[in-house]
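Forwarding the complex inputs:
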Amino acid sequence: MKHALSEASLPRGFRFAGLACGLKKTGALDLAIISSDVPASAAAVFTQNLVVAAPVTISKEHLRASKGRMRAVIVNAGNANCATGASGHAAAWKTVAETAKRLGCTPREILVCSTGVIGVPLAVEKILRSLTKLARNRRPSARSFAELSLAICTTDTRPKTAGASFKMARKRIHMVGCAKGAGMIHPNLATTLAFVVTDAAIAPALLQKTLGDVCSRTFNCISIDGDSSTNDTLAVFANGAAGAPAIRAGSAAHRAFRAALEDVCRSLALQIVADGEGAQRVIEIEVRGAKTEAAARRIAGTVATSLLVKTAFAGGDPNWGRVFAAAGRSGVAFDPARADIKMAGIPVLRRGSPLNFNERVASNRLLAEHVPIVLDLHAGSASARYWTCDLTAEYVRINASYRT
Amino acid sequence: MKHALSEASLPRGFRFAGLACGLKKTGALDLAIISSDVPASAAAVFTQNLVVAAPVTISKEHLRASKGRMRAVIVNAGNANCATGASGHAAAWKTVAETAKRLGCTPREILVCSTGVIGVPLAVEKILRSLTKLARNRRPSARSFAELSLAICTTDTRPKTAGASFKMARKRIHMVGCAKGAGMIHPNLATTLAFVVTDAAIAPALLQKTLGDVCSRTFNCISIDGDSSTNDTLAVFANGAAGAPAIRAGSAAHRAFRAALEDVCRSLALQIVADGEGAQRVIEIEVRGAKTEAAARRIAGTVATSLLVKTAFAGGDPNWGRVFAAAGRSGVAFDPARADIKMAGIPVLRRGSPLNFNERVASNRLLAEHVPIVLDLHAGSASARYWTCDLTAEYVRINASYRT
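Prediction (whole assembly, two chains):
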């Protein structure tokens, strides 16, 4: 679901801005802000990496201290401010404090995010001297939202945005989101930077629970390279500006809200995979017939992170043996003699025995932009999907010289 | 330790042969045999992948049924005979039965190994019609051993051999080994195909235990691409032909034997990493100051399998932040604020804070053939080493078109 931005589809009561403060050597946009005109319910999931960036530490503290009522997100790209010691923590804190002054709120109402290279001191003065202009530039416009979505990018080749809406109590609720990420993508509770804002009214605790549910089926089911970032943050703000009543757990409105959030998050997650460093196509690994959803997800995730699987797809090689071998080392018990595999709709393995298929037809189908792989274990009724991209020589080129 | 082969360094009482039976499209050597003139003590470790090739299933049965007294290994390259259904099992069985006839022993005294593409029916008739010639060609010569070491190769660019010797009861004991593997290398109890033969006398049970010990510090500490093969087999034969008394557990001779076996296995394991598909260099990840050896090995293994780490090394990029980030997602608890990192001898992180270093000097040192990385957690006294190779565009080229 690609979202065409327009003023009408933006949630009310949010303003956005993005500018170039000089952190990216190219001079591209690298500093952005999201703010809500009134305190919004906020929920977020963060990286599970033990090595966490200073802004993640501060954002976690603020989300807790503000009891999920927040005003803004300040974000920079070009430097992750991770493994930067005490001065890195001071830089993130200074950024928050100075932003709060410009917005007239308290520091703990602000989330701070950074993305980029790890272990290089952040030139925080570049951020600080741009904050006044950034705050002044905030607009509730599609153009400003587009600037935000561009400013958070690093090795991304394009911005990623998505939107959804639904009706509740005769009010239309809008939701838009943006995300960045093309490398170091292998989620563990959160991934990358992603922001979703909505004018629904919903309590912080219910928002957090709903976000966790949705995240486990969207952002937590993608992998580009198996590496989890130190800076992952997925945050949702809901400011109630649509004027509809508060969403209650288990209601029809809650189901509609969760479906909208899942649509937005899945769209953003798949856009990230499609823009994976050097990627040509999205591979969807579906495991069916497992005993539990966790088992299905573990197998799907193991296949999705196999270098041999990902390189085979770079060449359109219908090498289903690598899919089978990766499933076999996943740590989940199953009977290989009962397994079926389909690649791009073509049956290649049935009950553990190989089938004849037309290699040329298969290879052509594997060169599509979206390639579905189905592994059926015939052991139960649970299933899971995981999305990854092919691994190309271009991926290596990008990553062999990221810093130099 | 590269082993220079000579007749004098071969263990007594073993014969070898290799020939081309037509499984490799290139016409290269692809069928080989090792035989002991008398029944030898045998020990082996096999892949832990749930999807196992037919020859692995049969070899496991034979090792058990023969109570570790065996005569020969028959091995082919060019086809893994894995996921080939009932006909694949029949093909492996037929190969063993026909080999036993030529050698005048029972089928259960023979190990069978296959390596190559998965899921393609094995053209077993090519093997069967070459067995008489193969058996007749067996020689106790360095040249025959070299043919064996070549015939087991697949995407390897060179054969891998190693040797060691020690004295016991005034007899010199010899040991030689060969291995293959350049892709789908990420061990889990065993890896790849590797064979070691020695003229020491040692009981099968002690040989098996010693092999397990040695394997955990050698073959189980290497990774090329994170994928474990379906066909991994590491087998050791000890035929006692040197005339020395049987080695007893805990004796000085046992320590000498274990040291020799570890020398041979480490040499073969490092030769595999150095010949990793597309690899330019070996990266040695050493984790020090961990609470347990298992924790150290888990962190080292996570760093060694990180795509971002491996691609950075392809470009000689001193991107230590990726090493730190990979350690952080390993699942082992440690305090990042106490960690030190050295890359190629250059301190880059001390107590969690980055150090200034000369990028040009660092980059030059990272372009060496063997690059040591040391991560010290300052949390205990355990350590572990893990070896991997850089990930290059050439790796992708090889694997995007392996079957086609």
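Residues 218 and 266 of chain B are 5 Å apart (CA to CA).
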